[in-house]
Specification:
Length: about 290
């Protein structure tokens, strides 16, 4: 810029010098002839050239200022680009990812007389595959007399067989749910180390874990953990749905008993009159 300004200034001085050398004059050995008209015209041209030189200098100064502003805007654009490029390549701010991880609560049961033997280990995932046996040991079984009685009942019309069915459904569902809870707790214990490592990498600010590729890898790992957690939660929800179905079996049995009892009482009232002698039959529909 300074070189261009010096060039314009040199050009203006050269023009003034040429105008001075171009002034008309007549020299004679006896004297000098002075032409006022031509001298005034020459001075006017010199003045005009000086004014033009000042205008050129002002225009040049404005141009230099515009170029300086453009260069400042260019440098600002370069800085902004470098900042955006650095943020895309290296993530420096990770605090927005910080969440609170829930603590794993381990199951604990009293065992004064051996009544809950194996339950705590099965629930906490320390003894996988033992949930069915643990559930059987904790609950009351049927004796031989009950077995003989149930063997003579008619399926579909026996209240005792309906109760047995509900008990067996409860055994199967509860054993499955104990196993699912144990597997979930075991999985949570096994995932504590990789989850801790993932958390440390997510909030690490070194160049090793702040590249765009590494961040995508961390997101894939987090999605894999989320998928495993979702599948485990789905298994637990399935257990809750199964337990709700077993509870509905008990309510349905109670409803069937109510209807059957009402029909039986009505039948007995029709066959065997309960009204006292010489009384009306207004109590035929009464159900005690």
């Amino acid at each position: 810029m300074q070189r261009l300004l010096n060039k314009y200034r040199s050009g203006g001085l050269a023009a003034v010098f040429l105008m001075l050398t171009a002034l008309p004059g007549h020299a004679q050995f006896g004297g000098v002839v002075f032409d006022p008209t031509q001298s005034a015209h020459a001075l006017q041209q010199i003045y005009q050239n000086v004014q033009n030189s000042v205008t050129w200098q002002q225009q040049l100064a404005n141009t230099i200022q515009l170029l300086a502003t453009a260069d400042k805007d260019y440098q600002q654009a370069i800085t902004t680009y470098n900042t955006i490029h650095g943020n895309l390549k290296n993530f420096s701010s990770k605090s927005i990812w910080q969440t609170i991880q829930s603590q794993l609560t381990m199951a604990s049961f009293a065992n004064q007389y051996g009544e809950t033997t194996g339950l705590q280990a099965a629930m906490n995932g320390q003894a996988p595959g033992t949930s069915s046996m643990v559930w059987k040991l904790m609950n009351l079984g049927l004796n031989s007399t009950s077995s003989s009685f149930l063997s003579g009942q008619v399926l579909g019309s026996s209240h005792a067989l309906a109760t047995l069915t509900r008990m067996e459904a409860m055994d199967g569902v509860s054993s499955q749910c104990l196993g699912s809870v144990g597997n979930y707790n075991s999985m949570r214990n096994g995932n504590l180390l990789p989850q801790t490592s993932l958390t440390q990498s997510q909030f690490d600010t070194t160049s090793f874990t702040t590249t765009e590729l590494e961040q995508l890898n961390l997101l894939n790992m987090a999605n894999a953990h989320h998928l495993n957690e979702s599948q485990a939660q789905g298994a637990l929800h399935a257990c809750q749905a199964a337990q709700a179905a077993v509870q509905n079996m008990a309510q349905r049995t109670a409803a069937a008993d109510e209807i059957n009892n009402a029909a039986f009482v009505q039948q007995q009232r029709a066959v065997f009159s309960s009204a006292p002698a010489n009384s009306s039959h207004t109590w035929d529909t009464y159900l005690p």
